[in-house]
């Protein structure tokens, strides 16, 4: 069994991203402190006994600090000093009173600490949910039985429009302080239909009849907040508020060295010395030991079964703030194998003697390899036994990581690759990943024409009013394009839908998808809403920007026969024609390059 006779601290140094500078830091039981924000100190250290110490306790009927010293004499080779250093690293100065209290508590209880229930997940957030496209998106998602949350500015208006039972949060993307983190718990996908408000200069009817006809039919002006505030600053705020929930296509660096930057963790050795053994390990940074000659972490040591031991490990101190990896599907380790089988243990509780979500992995000797460990493969283990009724693993509440080489697996199984003696495992990085196929997480409703205001050679008489009146409308299309760029640069898997002129006509007409920002025409708001929802489930839509219109000209009204409605479209067939990287900005870049 691998367990430990002390508790994790409630605080630890914070994470920090740093530019890598050549260092050589030997850690041992003192941890890796290369570029870390200092901590205010460790609070509430709490010592807990492990199963092996408990068995000794039951035989002797008493256990106090003097037992540790007697064990040093009785078990030749046991390093009492290293035992104390281990306690000190994870807990601060040992407290005899707390040790005694912990032992008493552990004698009277053999149950693991209760884990926090996993939060509801998979919610689709709809921003701009009371607009013409947004409210239709909400209806479609509800009809599909998908969990929906709406972000709106006016609660009364939203409940009147969407129903009193709608899952609703009140916030304004133009005001970052209103986008509270709790609003987005459980959110995994977003459809953003927020747009600057354009209306007739001469006013409109209470039900916005003129606006519903489209900008082509009235002289427009900006109503309310400016395009810069809504389309650009608002997009900055929304991305910042949601980025952790949505995740990055390239994944998130949890530990290690990549592309000249690094992220460190407060690792410390945790070996079988805590239960009387003599195995010993350390973790250090090797400046030129990486795959391409750069730095890497190195977990190394010697394992022995003397004194009934048989494991070594490195474990992080508890994180100040839980690491939220709920946007990802697992952890990927880039390492150089030695042919042995190791274990990764992830904990979601600040208590030490508690369930560890565990998975074993094999390595190939003398080869750099990427090992992907899905969160779904983590097994709840407590004192080397599976906990059948444990709470599901919650990747939003990660408190510590541990890497282990051990004689033991779990439930009585032994590690088939275990041998006593020295070992080493270079670990260059640990990264959270999104599993393939990657689907869009952020679907944005933009506008056709965003690259045209400055494009040379256009016949403006044939362009939509917003292109001709871009400056008069507060550079509306310019800031819409800047908002799009923020999405593309964010790293979040996305789809940007650029509809042509929006109408109140029903969905169902044949469609034209295009890229490069060249087409003009019309399309119904209902159709755009359907496209947005379909994009969430299509890998072909991921990281694409496209324009869309129907084949019906402006001069014709599109209607459907309720008795014989058109068939439902397979939007995937349209998405398959799209290519990433085409935005229409290519024309502008060529123009600037030739000047």
Q: How are the elements arranged and paired?
A:
Elements: E1 17-19, E2 25-26, H1 51-60, H2 65-74, H3 80-91, H4 96-107, E3 123-127, H5 134-143, E4 148-152, H6 155-162, E5 168-170, E6 187-192, E7 197-200, H7 209-213, E8 220-223, H8 227-246, E9 252-258, E10 261-263, E11 267-269, E12 280-286, E13 296-303, E14 311-316, E15 330-336, E16 341-347, E17 356-362, E18 368-374, E19 379-382, E20 385-386, E21 400-406, E22 421-433, E23 442-445, H9 465-468, H10 476-490, E24 494-499, E25 501-503, E26 511-514, E27 522-524, H11 525-535, E28 544-550, H12 571-575, H13 585-594
Parallel strand pairs: 3-4, 3-6, 4-5, 6-23, 23-24, 24-28, 25-27
Antiparallel strand pairs: 1-10, 2-12, 7-8, 9-10, 9-22, 11-14, 12-13, 13-22, 14-21, 15-18, 15-22, 16-17, 16-21, 17-19, 19-20, 26-28
Helix pairs in contact: 5-11, 8-10
């Amino acid at each position: 069994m691998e367990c430990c006779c002390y508790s994790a601290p409630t605080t630890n140094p914070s994470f920090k991203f740093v530019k890598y500078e050549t260092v050589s830091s030997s850690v041992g039981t003192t941890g890796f402190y290369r570029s870390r924000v200092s901590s205010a100190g460790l609070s509430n250290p709490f010592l807990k006994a492990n199963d092996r110490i408990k068995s000794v306790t039951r035989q002797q009927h008493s256990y106090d600090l003097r037992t540790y010293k007697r064990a040093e004499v009785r078990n030749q080779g046991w390093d009492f000093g290293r035992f104390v250093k281990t306690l000190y690293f994870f807990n601060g100065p040992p407290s005899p009173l707390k040790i005694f209290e912990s032992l008493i508590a552990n004698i009277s209880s053999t149950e693991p600490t209760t884990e926090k229930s996993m939060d509801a997940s998979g919610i689709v957030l709809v921003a701009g949910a009371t607009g013409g496209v947004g409210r239709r998106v909400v209806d479609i998602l509800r009809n599909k039985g998908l969990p929906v949350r709406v972000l709106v500015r006016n609660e009364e208006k939203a409940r009147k429009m969407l129903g009193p039972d709608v899952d609703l949060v009140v916030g304004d993307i133009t005001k970052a302080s209103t986008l509270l983190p709790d609003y987005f718990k459980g959110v995994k996908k977003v459809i953003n239909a927020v747009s600057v408000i354009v209306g007739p200069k001469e006013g409109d009817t209470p039900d916005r009849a003129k606006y519903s006809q489209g900008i082509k039919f009235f002289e427009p002006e900006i109503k309310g907040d400016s395009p810069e505030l809504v389309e650009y600053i608002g997009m900055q705020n929304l991305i910042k508020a949601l980025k952790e929930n949505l995740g990055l296509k390239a994944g998130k660096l949890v530990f290690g060295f990549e592309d000249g930057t690094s992220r460190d963790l407060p690792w410390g050795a945790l070996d079988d010395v805590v239960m009387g053994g003599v195995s010993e390990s350390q973790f250090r940074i090797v400046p030129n030991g990486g795959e391409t000659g750069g730095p890497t972490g190195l977990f190394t040591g010697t394992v022995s079964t003397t004194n009934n031991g048989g494991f070594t490990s490195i474990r992080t101190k508890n994180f100040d703030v839980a690491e939220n990896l709920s946007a990802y599907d697992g952890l990927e380790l880039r390492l150089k194998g030695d042919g042995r089988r190791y274990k990764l243990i992830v904990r979601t509780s600040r208590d030490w003697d508690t369930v560890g979500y565990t998975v074993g992995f094999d390595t190939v000797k003398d080869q750099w390899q990427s090992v992907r460990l899905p969160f779904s493969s983590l097994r709840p283990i407590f004192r080397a036994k599976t906990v059948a009724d444990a709470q599901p693993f919650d990747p939003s509440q990660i408190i510590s990581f541990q890497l282990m080489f051990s004689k033991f697996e779990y439930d009585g199984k032994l590690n088939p690759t275990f041998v006593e003696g020295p070992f080493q495992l270079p670990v260059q990085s640990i990264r959270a990943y999104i599993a393939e196929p990657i689907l869009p997480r952020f679907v944005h409703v933009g506008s056709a024409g965003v690259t045209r205001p400055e494009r040379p050679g256009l016949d403006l008489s044939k362009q939509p009013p917003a292109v001709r009146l871009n400056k008069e409308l507060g550079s509306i299309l310019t800031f819409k394009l800047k908002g799009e760029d923020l999405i593309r640069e964010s790293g979040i898997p996305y789809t940007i839908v650029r509809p042509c002129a929006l109408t109140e006509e029903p969905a169902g007409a044949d469609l034209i998808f295009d890229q490069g920002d060249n087409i003009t025409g019309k399309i119904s708001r209902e159709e755009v809403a359907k496209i947005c929802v379909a994009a969430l489930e299509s890998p072909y839509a991921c990281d694409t920007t496209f324009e869309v219109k129907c084949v019906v000209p402006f001069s014709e009204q599109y209607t459907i026969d309720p008795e014989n409605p058109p068939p439902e479209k397979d939007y995937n067939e349209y998405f398959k024609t799209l290519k990433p990287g085409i935005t229409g900005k290519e024309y502008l870049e060529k123009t600037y390059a030739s000047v």
